[in-house]
């Protein structure tokens, strides 16, 4: 129950501030019937420098959202590390975001999920992108 209160606070904060980064947000608390059924579509990731990747996506189908869409969660991990090294960025209704301060010339696994007040829905398929080498 304490975790639910913490998550409610985080979601309230997101609604007010529209952005939060969190490395440990658990997705085990959501209620299956009130979160988006489908993930965002058309997820793409393109490097923009040796330390940045731009991620873009389209919203999930409206009929699959099941509640009010609050925002999106981007999860990214260097492909050479295990999933416990994942980092997360949570946004309001933007459908693009620049991941910055990444490691140079590194392959990243990236997913995007939509969320409502109740919780985070299904993640997109993994999209992979490399950051550039220096000087490219």
Explain what the structure shows.
The radius of gyration is 15 Å and the shape is elongated. It is mainly β. The N and C termini lie far apart (50 Å). A hairpin with an 8-residue loop joins strand 4 (71-78) and strand 5 (87-91). The protein has a single domain, classed as Immunoglobulins (Immunoglobulin-like). 27% of the residues are buried. Strands 1, 4, 5, 7, 8 and 9 form a six-stranded antiparallel beta sheet that branches. Strands 2-3-6 form a three-stranded antiparallel beta sheet, with no helix packed on it. It has one helix at 2-17; strands at 19-21, 41-49, 52-58, 71-78, 87-91, 96-99, 107-115, 120-123, 127-130.
| Number of DSSP E strands | 9
Cα distance, first to last residue?
Answer: 50 Å
CATH topology: Immunoglobulin-like
Radius of gyration: 15 Å
Shape: elongated
Number of domains: 1
**How do the SSEs run, as a string of H and E?**
HEEEEEEEEE
Helix content bin: 10-25%
CATH architecture: Sandwich
